[in-house]
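tokens incoming
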């Protein structure tokens, strides 16, 4: 409650209304047995509790069998008496007091208990056997706020909160926690993918420098993605943008392989390194451009939410074309990720990759002369087997 009041007093922008999932002011009537009075009267606490339980919830006193069916007989007070506190307290407990020579006593419950109106939790929720209270709120997305930014502001205010009782911990969950888990998973998937790509390229080229050059193109494509999102002001989705970057890596790597592999082929024919790189860029610009354009043009309808009704197109010759819809909200981040990344990577393939290839080859001889041995990488990493 103190945390909710603290956050309510701050009035964090973007938070609609903080609500708790537990009712802390659920009214309750507590009956406390006067043990000393019960001992004097000769009645046990179990008898008092059983009498109240029977009146409210009932007690099975017998069973009736009719054919193959068996019916339980429940004994309890009628509905009017169950809903009346006065009637419940006026009920009498009948018992035989052996200390008084076996005399039968009838004592009202009101003489044995104390009535206290209190408040309690409406329910108790647990996670991993620990009590849990959740604060939740909608984000005012219609006013330009997003959940990620609001969660970051809330995290700062929660860190400044000083009224935390002992044994109580505060943790942000919900959409923020899911985004963190998704981001961690996609980061791990991307690193594993890059490691596998690097391994395969090292085996293919028998070199470390060339795979490193190709993988740097992925980094440049990611830079292009974030540049595109920052320039256009679009919102970044952790899940779909991450999936787009993982998918983008495969396309970008293929374009880099086309240029470097053809440059190696031209050098094996006796062409000088500089001329081979220039000719490889000129020759491979068409397949690289076609690959990028094919992917970009394929994702543009999804990115802008282009919709067409093929049923009415053939039945009524009316395609009913419109833009937008629910699907564009889901697929838009992934589509623009690939579009931005491929657009930026296309120029990197024709400029940065040939330049890095030329630098790596020109550094090969100085590296060999300085360190000795048959070096295959401008980074100074020797081959495993040569």
């Amino acid at each position: 409650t103190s945390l909710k009041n603290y956050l309510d007093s701050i009035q964090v922008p973007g938070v609609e209304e903080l609500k708790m999932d537990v009712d802390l002011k659920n009214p309750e009537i507590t009956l406390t047995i006067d043990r000393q009075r019960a001992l004097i009267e000769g009645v046990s606490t179990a008898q008092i509790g059983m009498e109240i339980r029977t009146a409210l919830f009932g007690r099975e006193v017998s069973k009736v069998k009719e054919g193959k069916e068996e019916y339980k007989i429940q004994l309890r007070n009628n509905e009017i008496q169950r809903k009346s506190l006065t009637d419940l307290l006026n009920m009498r407990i009948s018992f035989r007091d052996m200390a008084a020579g076996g005399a039968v006593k009838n004592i009202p419950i009101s003489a044995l208990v104390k009535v206290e109106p209190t408040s309690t939790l409406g329910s108790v929720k647990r996670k991993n056997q620990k009590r849990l209270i959740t604060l939740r709120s909608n984000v005012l997305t219609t006013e330009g706020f997003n959940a990620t930014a609001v969660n970051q502001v809330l995290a700062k205010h929660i860190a400044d909160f000083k009224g935390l009782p002992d044994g109580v911990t505060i943790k942000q969950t919900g959409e923020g926690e899911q985004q963190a888990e998704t981001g961690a998973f996609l980061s791990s998937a991307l690193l594993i993918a890059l490691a596998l790509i690097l391994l395969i390229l090292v085996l293919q080229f028998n070199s470390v420098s060339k795979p490193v050059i190709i993988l740097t193109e992925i980094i440049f494509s990611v830079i292009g993605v974030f540049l595109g999102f920052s320039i256009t002001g679009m919102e970044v989705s952790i899940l779909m943008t991450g999936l787009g970057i993982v998918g983008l890596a495969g396309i970008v790597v293929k374009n880099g392989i086309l240029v470097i592999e053809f440059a190696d082929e031209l050098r094996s024919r006796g062409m000088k390194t500089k001329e081979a790189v220039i000719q490889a860029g000129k020759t491979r610009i068409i397949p690289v451009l076609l690959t990028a354009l094919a992917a970009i043009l394929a994702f543009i309808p999804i990115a802008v939410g282009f919709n067409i009704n093929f049923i009415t197109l053939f039945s009524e010759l009316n395609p009913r074309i419109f833009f937008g819809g629910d699907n564009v909200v889901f697929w838009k981040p992934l589509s623009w990720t690939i579009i931005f990344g491929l657009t930026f990577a296309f120029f990197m393939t024709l400029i940065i990759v040939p330049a890095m290839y030329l630098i790596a080859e020109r550094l090969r001889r100085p590296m060999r002369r300085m360190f000795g041995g048959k070096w295959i990488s401008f980074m100074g990493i020797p081959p495993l087997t040569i």
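note: Residues 90 and 263 are 101 Å apart (CA to CA).
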